[in-house]
Amino acid sequence: MVKQKTVIEAVVVSGIGVHSGDPASVCIKPAPADSGIRFVRTDLPGMPEVVTRPEAVHSTAQATVLGGDGFTIATTEHCLAALAGFEIDNAVVEVDGGELPIGDGSAQPWIDALQKAGSAEQDAPREFIVITERIVYGDDETFAELTPHDGLRISCSIAFSHRRIGDQSLTLDVNPQSFRREIGPARTFGFLKDRERAKAMGIGLGASLDNTVVLDDAGILNVGGLRFPDEFVRHKMLDALGDLAVLGKPLRGHLQARRSGHELMQGLVRKIAASPGSFRRETFEELPGDGRRQQA
User: Fold this and answer.
1) Is 262 tagged catalytic?
2) What predicted TM-score, i.e. pTM, was given to this entire model?
3) Which member of 114, 201, 240, 254 has the lowest number of beta carbons within 10 Å of its beta carbon?
């Protein structure tokens, strides 16, 4: 039986929020089986909490923001992507502030923390959302589509007029190894020309060359350049994985996303939740498609 997992030890990730610019600290702790990924605002009276699920999404402006009655927790996507990439089903994510730390702009700080924390199987089967029929959200130019697949496969494509980005496409089968090597290290990116407008809107106040790949008209400003030639589309893949994690269950299907963003992906998540005839919930003795696998 494929079982649920949680972390073994509590681990801390600290830094600043990319949008607020405020100090931010997170402690990821073990959690019981069937409890999901639970975010807790430890800096607020009563320590309000929210379980990761589609109805918990508060907004998608520049980040995936979860919320509950009178509180929000911003920029959850990289943490959620790492937990999904490491196949962690249950954890308590204690947040001292309104936004998670951005680290270096990728999921690498979360990867390092989760490797340190370790993981352990729990005495409960892991339930998957298995896509059985096509689900699509968007239009011909900008869309996210799910079709049946024996595993989790993500295909992303982006198109930017900037000469250092242009058209990029990538398809990867997602598992803990590919996440750590191919997806997690990809950093967020932005354009220098947008900096003042963003700050006037109260976003990107903590953005810098330490946590963002920044492009001007001539090229990339970061010393050392890119981690991958196609780092931009890989980061879009990272964000898409974090947004899919809002479903609250691991997904088996093929995501094809063109020019995706948080708003588009959360639109797809809502459509999945509203389309029970297009998926089934299954547990497995061994997962088909990667050498371990048969339906329970």
Assistant:
1) yes
2) 0.95
3) 201
Domains assigned to the chain: 3-125 (3.30.230.20), 128-283 (3.30.1700.10)
- Residue among 61, 106, 132 nearest 278 (CA): 132
Q: Measured between alpha carbons, how far is 186 from 227 in angstroms, rounded to an integer?
A: 7
Can you tell me the distance from the alpha carbon of 81 to that of 78, in angstroms, rounded to the nearest whole number?
5
Q: Phi/psi of residue 63, each to 5°?
A: -165, 165
- The rounded distance, in Å, linking the Cα atoms of 251 and 281 is 10
Per-residue pLDDT tens over the stretch 210-231:
999 999 999 999 999 999 999 9
- CB neighbours of 259 closer than 8 A, spacing ≥ 6? 141, 142, 157, 158, 159
Q: How many helices (H) and strands (E) does the chain have?
A: 6, 21
Catalytic residue among 19, 78, 254, 262: 262
Secondary structure in 3-state letters for 186-222: CCCEEEHHHHHHHHHCCCCCCCCCCCCEEECCCCECC
Q: What is the pLDDT of residues 13-46, one digit of tens each?
A: 999 999 999 999 999 999 999 999 999 999 999 9
pLDDT score, position 289: 66
Write the CA distances from 227 to 90, 103, 105, 156, 257, integer angstroms.
31, 15, 12, 18, 22
